[in-house]
């Protein structure tokens, strides 16, 4: 048996608990809900439509996991979108065409646990709805049952109208998406603003009308000239959610990772993205400080360490010697 010599340390003990229970786990839960969060009512389709009719702007934010959903919900977002952009910002993929429905369902479930008040919509990924109305409906049902979201989003205008109708007739809410459609970036010639020619502008109007008639509860307008987006917003009776489509839309959405600044310096950002924070910079500051304090021995100090009950350490030391585990 190996014997270990060590210097007998001074006996210190943790201070007694003062009415609150300590947790000794490294995976403590999030704090209790705030009073605002508890008082806030669940956002519904009627809530969203009422906002359109009353002229109140709608806020939508992407989320890809529990923390990002929790903060979006706590910040008061009306809608949370589990966007297929998570393929790049959460999974490191090259583009949205790479992500599979199983990946999306996992992230939908995570987001649904974090956002209890916002209306949650899940993005149907490329390949999960284009083959047939039956395929699209099957995927949408999985999102509701397995993903625990309240609605689905799919890209496409007139050509997807019957698919949207098939899903909505089954009682599932659909958020349309026209203009720049990232899943079709290669066919569109890349990430380019749509509606800048007479032909494409008229097609955008036709697409928006078709999506509304098909039963969608709202439409995302992406990378569309602001004056054209305003015309679409006035033309249809359902809300429009803009992303790079100007302030004339019924609401706005951004990719959370972009707008909070959780990316390294030098990364390209689309023109429409406003950076509201610097999460990357703050994370780097914290991580570098941790690295330096561990290297120097500053962390963990006594403040962040546990102590044995008073007198117990001496007993452990003496018993250890008696049993041959330790040496003087």
Description:
With 328 residues, the chain is an alpha/beta fold. It contains twelve helices and ten strands. The chain has an eight-stranded parallel β-barrel with strand order 2-3-4-5-6-7-8-9, surrounded by seven helices. Strands 1-10 form a two-stranded parallel ribbon. Helix 3 packs across helix 5, helix 6 packs across helix 7 and helix 7 runs parallel beside helix 8. The radius of gyration is 27 Å and the shape is elongated.
Give the key terms.
single chain; 328 residues; alpha/beta; eight-stranded parallel beta barrel; two-stranded parallel sheet; 12 helices; 10 strands
In short:
This protein is of the alpha/beta class. The chain contains twelve helices and ten strands.
Give the CA-based shape: elongated
Q: Nearest-angstrom radius of gyration?
A: 27 Å
Order of helices and strands: EHHEHEHHEHEHEHEHEEHHHE
The count of DSSP E runs of length 2 or more, i.e. the number of strands, is 10
Biggest beta-sheet profile: 8 strands, parallel, barrel
Which consecutive residue ranges, at least 5 long each, have pLDDT under 50? none
Distance between the termini: 16 Å
Query: Helical percent range?
Result: 25-40%
Topology:
Layout: E1 4-5, H1 35-39, H2 45-54, E2 58-62, H3 66-74, E3 79-82, H4 86-89, H5 101-114, E4 119-123, H6 133-145, E5 151-153, H7 161-168, E6 173-179, H8 198-214, E7 218-222, H9 226-235, E8 240-243, E9 251-254, H10 256-259, H11 279-296, H12 312-322, E10 326-327
Parallel strand pairs: 1-10, 2-3, 2-9, 3-4, 4-5, 5-6, 6-7, 7-8, 8-9
Helix pairs in contact: 3-5, 6-7, 7-8, 8-9
